[in-house]
Write a structure and sequence with these properties.
The protein has helices at residues 3-26, 210-216, 277-280, 318-321; strands spanning 39-52, 69-81, 88-97, 122-133, 137-144, 162-170, 176-187, 200-201, 221-229, 233-242, 246-259, 262-275, 287-299, 303-312, 349-358, 367-377, 393-405, 409-420, 426-436. It is mainly beta.
């Protein structure tokens, strides 16, 4: 069965299920706009996921042993938010994932919806927090799908990450946010280095070797940040200190301008990873940085371009850090594939060019199309294939269709072809849709 036929078949299945979700969602009470009412909300998501590594048997000498995987899932998420009393409010979110027994358990290892060891449906208390809001201060404590550059809910797949966190933000200064907080635990099958269907300490959820996790002994991550944004200039500086593992420094500046019918976004980014504490005296080495540039342009007629370039320094630790805890702020990655298929990104460079068209700018159709080319220039002295050969390049070609329906319906179809030196060609298809209410 060719890819186009399979796409049409799975899209029809997904459309029928999404239609049922839309009908069910339309019968639920509308979320109250009044802050003094309880608000019931949710997101019921369905997805067909397929990854073809040319490796049906999981041969370790092909694509790092990554095995061909495919499956269909339903992921419901229901939330209840309390009224606000003197600035205090709370929220509880229940989530889960199931395949109704439809999937082949032997073909799910690279899908990261269920835990890869238990490989079974699950339910989780995704959010449970109390927060306080005033004109200048915000404080939150509990489980929350929080968004920061390097530790993030990363809600672009089937189920978002969630974190046990204490987070504070002060907005006393004009256009400026001052952040401080502590991450204690994480749950998230897609981005956790532990059992993602349960909450584990941040050290256990990291991507470092197990010996370093054991030495860190269930430690968390302290963070602080300054974020300035006046709609034209956006400058941010974040620091994350993972006790006895590594420190992450994130700095980014964006210049956002509109000239006539064209919007511009110039960006520069610097990220530094450096080992600290007990890991510093271990055999694991984390000491490198990434410098990146981007330029995006969007036209009033719906056309857009997005470009980026990144340079990885000649230091080690990429495999222990990239993508950990849901952080994906990088300027030059693929649509589906990022770093994990390369032998190493040490001393590598990456480049991205994307074109798109948003039909909603000129028609009533809420549809957008995107095409992306990503190229990684690898250093063959460090990047080695599964069968021991040096790798010079990795490249991806991705296509994406995004649509929205009614007030809360959405659908995204993403296909990407991946090729890397001395490995079998890879492709992946994601059909994800649902309804938010």
């Amino acid at each position: 069965m060719n890819i186009l036929h399979k796409y049409q078949e799975k899209r029809a299945l997904l459309a029928s299920i999404t239609g049922g979700i839309l009908l069910a969602g339309s019968m639920l009470p509308a979320a109250a706009s009044d802050d003094n009412k309880f608000v019931f909300s949710g997101d019921v998501r369905a997805g067909w996921l397929e990854y073809n590594y040319g490796n049906p048997d999981g041969n370790p000498e092909i694509n790092k042993g990554h095995k061909d995987s495919e499956g269909f899932y339903i992921v419901p998420k229901l939330s209840l938010t309390t009224p606000s009393y003197s600035g205090f409010s709370g929220k509880i979110t229940l989530a889960g994932a199931t395949d109704f027994g439809l999937n082949d358990e032997d073909k799910e290892s690279r899908l990261f919806v269920f835990d890869p060891v238990e490989n079974e449906p699950f339910a989780i208390l995704q959010e449970l927090f109390v927060e306080y809001n005033s004109e200048q201060n915000h404080f939150l404590v509990g489980r929350n799908e929080i968004y920061t550059p390097m530790i993030d809910a990363d809600d672009y797949y089937m189920l978002a990450n969630s974190f046990a966190v204490a987070a504070f933000k002060n907005s006393s200064f004009e256009n400026t946010g001052i952040h401080a907080g502590y991450f204690y635990e994480m749950a998230g099958v897609w981005d956790s280095g532990a059992n993602g269907t349960e909450f584990h300490s941040m050290s256990d959820a990291s991507f470092v070797p197990q010996v370093n996790k054991d030495e860190a002994d269930d430690t968390g991550i302290y963070y602080g940040a300054v974020d300035y944004n006046n709609s034209t200039h956006h400058a941010q500086l974040w620091n994350y200190y993972a006790t006895d593992l590594y420190n992450t420094l994130f700095a980014q500046y964006n210049l956002i301008k509109k000239t006539g019918s064209m919007g511009h976004n110039f960006g520069a980014q610097f990220i530094d990873f450096s080992q600290v504490g007990k890991l510093k005296s271990s055999e694991t080495d984390i000491d490198y940085n990434i410098f990146s540039l981007k330029y995006d342009a969007a036209f009033d007629n719906g056309w857009s371009i997005a470009s980026g370039a990144a340079k990885y320094s000649d230091g080690d630790g990429q495999g222990s850090t990239l993508g950990a805890w849901g952080g994906y702020p990088y300027f030059a990655n693929g649509m589906i594939f990022h770093f994990f298929e390369a032998g190493s990104l040490r001393d590598a460079s990456s480049y991205k060019l994307q074109g798109g068209y948003d039909f909603s700018k000129t028609t009533k159709a809420r549809t957008a199309l995107y095409a992306r080319y990503t190229y990684f220039d690898l250093n063959p002295a460090y990047s080695i294939s599964s069968d021991g050969q040096p790798q010079d390049f990795m490249k991806m070609i991705g296509l994406q269709l995004k649509q929205s329906y009614l007030k809360g319906g959405y659908f995204a179809a993403t296909y990407e072809n991946h090729k890397i030196d001395h490995e079998h060609n890879v492709w992946a298809l994601r059909l994800i849709g649902g309804y938010k209410f």
